[in-house]
Structure formats: C-alpha cells, structure tokens
C-alpha cells in the first residue's frame, strides 16, 4: 500500500495555503488507510467526496492568495486546477465499476501525481516568483 506522509519541503510559505495542503494530505492518507472490508465501500465514498470538496475549496483559496500577491501566472495555474478537478470528476465517475484494489492503486497514483506533484512543482513556483519579486522590489 502507498504510504503518504507530509514533508516540510512541500511548504510554500503561506500559513493558510500550507495548512490546507497539510489537510489535503490528511484526507488522502485517511482514504488510503486499509479498513475492514465490510466498511471499505462507505469509507471510499466518504473519503473521495471529502477529498474532492476540500480540493475545490483549497484551489479557490489558493487562487485568492495568488490574486492578492499579483501572481502573473494565475490564469495558467487556474487552468491546471480546472484540469485536476476534471480528472477528479472522471475518477469519481469510474468508482462504481472499480474493484477496491483498482481504487486503491488509482487513488495512490492520483494523490501522488495530482496533489503531491502539484504542490511540489506548480505551487512551489508561486514561492519562487514571490521571493524573486520581493528581492527585486527591495
């Protein structure tokens, strides 16, 4: 089973956004924790819905933060967010036809590529831009 752990290297330097990123990890981790087979289906549905709703809320907050710092690549970042939400919708639609093993494998891949990698690559660009922007304005 895929092991999901928060790492401080994922921090982008904004308390609210970082707290939400950590919470996304908690939700995803909880979705990946194996439970009694009789409770799996209910847990899967609950965790995926929570992850989906929280991700949408987080993206909205993150975009508000980017607007507040006048991040010049907000439109591109927003398109990435829309793509992630579309992929999440597709994933949710496939759930009823997936076995629990397929679900766990797909969810682990989804979490790693669409959440962790998004934070590490795309969200880190915000921090890099902000650091450079602040140095130039000093």
Show the helix and strand layout.
Layout: H1 15-32, H2 37-68, H3 74-94, H4 100-136
Helix pairs in contact: 1-2, 1-4, 2-3, 3-4
Q: What structural category characterises the helix and strand content?
A: mainly alpha
The number of strands is 0
Task: Give the overall silhouette.
Answer: elongated
Percent strand equals: under 5%
Helix content: over 70%
Biggest beta-sheet profile: none
Sequence of secondary-structure elements: HHHH
Mean pLDDT rating: 85
Query: Which radius of gyration do the C-alpha atoms yield?
Result: 16 Å
Structure description:
This protein starts with 14 loop residues before the first helix and ends with a helix. It is elongated and about 60 Å long. Helix 1 (15-32) runs antiparallel to helix 2 (37-68) and helix 1 runs antiparallel to helix 4. It has four helices and no strands. With 138 residues, it is mostly helical. The model has no long low-confidence stretch (mean pLDDT 85).
